Amino acid sequence: MIDTIPYSDNELLKMVKEGNEEAFRQLFFKFYPRLLRYAVRYVNDEDIAEDILQDCFISFWERKSSIRYISLSSLLFCMVRNACLNYIKHNSLIENISVDYVFDIGGEEKLYSLDMQLSPDEILFQKELKIQISKAISLLSDRTRQVFVLSRFRGLKNNEIADRLNITTKAVEKHITKSLKIISSYLENQSLDTKYFIIVSLFFLS
């Protein structure tokens, strides 16, 4: 047993790799609340999110000896993200994900300063997906597109956009709502697999 002191992530990972169950317990309670909130935002169901997290932590423990010394938070969030996306894909729930929901999750990953690496398959699709996303954004009017880019890609708050463009915050909100509806409508016309990979790529657009 280890003392219940605030070990660093690297220290916890080292002890877990050595088979220390108490270190694994501390790791679990340290990350579980954030991971659960993160998973719920994907699957929109706390019970399902809890099941996904349980599977992820079991997999983490079973694979502990082969885990490399990398960012522990990025590893755990990446495992949960992939598990959630697999659940969504296998249960044909792509249509239930709204575009603004996707961007909000992307913002959360940035908030945690996560280094979420793309898989080789995702990298393969990246070029074509960016073209598809550009096509969706090109459907927006000039002002709506300008507001959308400042909001979703530049990270500006509504009042900051309003000041920059000399419009009201209410107008900013209307432009964002309009842009999300147009992009959602565009995605609805894509095949299931294409929409799945578009959603994946949206998380990583810089």
Automatic annotation (TrEMBL):
Gene Ontology MF term list: DNA binding; sigma factor activity
Record keyword Transcription present: yes
InterPro entries xrefs: RNA_pol_sigma-70-like, RNA_pol_sigma-70_dom, RNA_pol_sigma70_bacteroid, RNA_pol_sigma70_r2, RNA_pol_sigma70_r4_t2, RNA_pol_sigma_r2, RNA_pol_sigma_r3/r4-like, WH-like_DNA-bd_sf
RNA polymerase sigma factor 70 region 4 type domain mapped to chain residues: 132-181
GO terms classed as biological process: DNA-templated transcription initiation
SUPFAM superfamilies: Sigma2 domain of RNA polymerase sigma factors, Sigma3 and sigma4 domains of RNA polymerase sigma factors
Stretches assigned to coiled coil: none
Keywords: Sigma factor, Transcription, Transcription regulation
RNA polymerase sigma-70 region domain mapped to chain residues: 30-91
Pfam family of the protein (one): Sigma70_r2
Family according to the record: Belongs to the sigma-70 factor family. ECF subfamily.
NCBIfam families linked: Sig70_bacteroi1 (TIGR02985), sigma70-ECF (TIGR02937)
Protein name (Swiss-Prot/TrEMBL): RNA polymerase sigma-70 factor
